[in-house]
């Protein structure tokens, strides 16, 4: 079984965080959407008023497959602990429609699928649309 340690991210983790973001985007076939730099991650997450909070899961794998060892559940449970400690009433996860394994995990842990339950759809403004709205 893999050994798992979950800790608060440090500024020095930004290069690895960006690498993982890029690997995830590649897995999700969304590599073209990763436009952030290591410097932006550092400024946005470790400045005076951070825009995000990040945990790092350090996994020392045992031989064989990592899936099915409860690592995802442990990470999500830790996120819930941090959210409650910070006074949050909820946290949200985004998942692509083809990633049934992740959706099944989230539901098994008690998450509501807001698309099913309330009809919510997620929208994003970026690039030219943002500049046009802002008159820039």
TrEMBL record:
The lineage of its organism: Eukaryota, Metazoa, Chordata, Craniata, Vertebrata. Belongs to the acetyltransferase family. This is Spermidine/spermine N1-acetyltransferase family member 2. SUPFAM superfamilies: Acyl-CoA N-acyltransferases (Nat). PROSITE patterns: GNAT. It comes from Propithecus coquereli. The gene is SAT2. Pfam families: Acetyltransf_1. PANTHER family: DIAMINE N-ACETYLTRANSFERASE, THIALYSINE N-EPSILON-ACETYLTRANSFERASE. Residues 4-132 form the N-acetyltransferase domain. GO terms for molecular function: N-acetyltransferase activity. The keyword Chaperone does not apply. InterPro entries: Acyl_CoA_acyltransferase, Diverse_Substrate_AcTransf, GNAT_dom.
């Amino acid at each position: 079984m893999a050994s798992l340690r979950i800790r608060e991210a440090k500024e020095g983790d930004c290069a690895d965080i960006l690498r993982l973001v890029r690997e995830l985007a590649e897995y999700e076939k969304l590599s073209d959407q990763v436009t952030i730099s290591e410097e932006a991650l550092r400024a946005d997450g470790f400045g005076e008023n951070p825009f995000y909070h990040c945990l790092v899961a350090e996994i020392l794998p045992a031989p064989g497959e990592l899936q099915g060892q409860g690592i995802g559940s442990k990470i999500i449970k830790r996120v819930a602990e941090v959210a409650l400690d910070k006074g949050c009433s909820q946290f949200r996860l985004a998942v692509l429609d083809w990633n049934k394994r992740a959706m099944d995990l989230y539901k098994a842990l008690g998450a509501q699928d807001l698309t099913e339950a309330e009809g919510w759809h997620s929208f994003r403004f970026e690039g030219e649309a943002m500049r046009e709205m802002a008159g820039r």
